[in-house]
Amino acid sequence: MTNTENKRCGYIGIVGRPNVGKSTLMNALLGQKIAITSSKPQTTRHRILGILTEDNAQLIFVDSPGIHLKETTQMNKVMNRTASSVLANVDVLYFVVEGTKWTDDDALVLSKLKQQKSPVILVLNKVDQIADKAKLLPYLQEMQEKYPWADMIPISAEKGDNLDALVKLTAKFLPLGEFHYDQDQVTDKGGRFMAAEFIREKLMRLLGDELPYATSVEIERFTMTPRGINVDAVILVDRDGQKRIIIGKNGEKIKRIGTEARIDLSKALERPINMNLWVKVKKGWSDDIRALRSLGYLDE
Ligand SMILES: Nc1nc2c(ncn2[C@@H]2O[C@H](COP(=O)(O)OP(=O)(O)OP(=O)(O)O)[C@@H](O)[C@H]2O)c(=O)[nH]1
Fold it and tell me: Complex ipTM above 0.95?
């Protein structure tokens, strides 16, 4: 058989409760910063497609928001729906869990997994945090009882441990067929999308617990010029008080958010970036389904 006949290509969904390291895993696999990460849970709102082509396999990743427990606002309902649609449209699922810490939230995600047919690989992340490695084997045996996993693999997304093995393992579950994307294409999301993601990441990192989840970033202008890319972005918040927090004393906070986002975006797109940031108050936007649609959180 020739190489072409051996090619495999398919979709992989990454699911798991918030904060287990799903975004970190995807970034580590792709070796490039395209999904955002932060230590605050629930940072991933968009479905992000990342593509990894290695040897004869092309792995197309769909990152999903964590499956959230309380459907308190429209936003959470949207996120729950996204996670469920991810489950239904993939060839393989990674169910990411954290070390030897099994929680009720993991059990809830597993109950959703049980409703679908794709093979599920149990990805035990953050093994670097397990001080006593002897605990790993009995834990894996315990996990085996929970579900007929397609396979189980311990990894560290942060340290990059065992990721090659994970990629090889995954390829086995993908259908035979031609690649869907060019070999060197890493993501199908454009620079515009990346700009919003980077700004949102900086908001999360620099404002910590001060920042409510009801914050969004809209890119109003994204233009290429011979000298670089011009980006105008608006940060939407619910209340005046939140606007003041984001702007900070003498505008220092927003300046730093803009500078750091600009540096990251410039590295990712390999172009100089000129970025302008504003903060606007838009009352109750997180509960407004039409606003969510206009901001791109809902598919038409
Ligand atoms: N020690 C250790 N920390 C990790 C590892 N992977 C991720 N983390 C950390 O765990 C935290 C959460 O990681 P994320 O990748 O944002 O988690 P997530 O599952 O995508 O979270 P949501 O977007 O909220 O669903 C971050 O602080 C990461 O640095 C790992 O392998 N080892």
Answer: yes
